[in-house]
Specification:
The protein is mainly alpha-helical. It folds into 2 domains: 55 residues; 101 residues, no CATH class. Helices cover 86% and strands 0% of the residues. The chain has 6 helices and no strands. Helix 1 packs across helix 2 and helix 3 runs antiparallel to helix 4. The protein starts with a helix and ends with a helix.
């Protein structure tokens, strides 16, 4: 009887270890697939940018540099919007933590997504966060300085593209 119990315990331990190893292998495989997808997506985006340059009769490398310059310009202009949106999100995160503590949810045995007290607690903060984000976007869209700066970014991009030379004939025949 003892030998049978020991054998069952040993088999159960082996099955648990094998299951954990299988989960780790699955997670590694999924992460590898995700990384491959993101690499492919980046390459496709770069190829698309190069093709747009060629279609405009512009050297792809120069066109890409102009695109990067425009992105940096726009990102700088959008910093106040990004900061405002981050503030909305941090307020929501704080409310989420408070609601989680009040409802006593979390973990696999009591997920917050199915806890009625948590869901009820989060209704008002989610509405406030939506209103906050909407206000940030409206303020940015209505800011005449931001609109002028975005137009300047676009004008700078167009001027940059005009300075680019045409692509080489060898590139076009590939």
């Amino acid at each position: 009887m003892r030998e049978k119990a020991f054998g069952l315990a040993l088999t159960a331990a082996f099955m648990l270890a094998a299951g954990a190893a299988r989960v780790d292998a699955t997670n590694a495989c999924l992460q590898d697939a995700k990384d491959t997808f993101l690499d492919c997506k980046t390459q496709c985006s770069d190829d698309f940018t190069d093709a747009k340059g060629v279609c405009r009769g512009v050297s792809p490398g120069c066109f890409a540099a102009c695109v990067d310059g425009r992105k940096e310009c726009v990102d700088t202009v959008r910093e106040p919007l990004t900061t405002c949106l981050d503030g909305c999100e941090s307020t929501l995160d704080a409310a989420r933590a408070q609601c989680k503590a009040q409802a006593g949810c979390g973990g696999s045995s009591n997920p917050c997504s199915t806890n009625a007290a948590f869901i009820e607690c989060m209704n008002a903060p989610q509405l406030a966060a939506f209103t906050c984000r909407d206000g940030c976007r409206d303020a940015f869209r209505l800011d005449p300085d931001a609109r002028a700066a975005l137009k300047a970014c676009q004008a700078g991009f167009k001027a940059c593209v005009k300075t680019c030379g045409s692509p080489s004939g060898a590139f076009l025949s590939e």
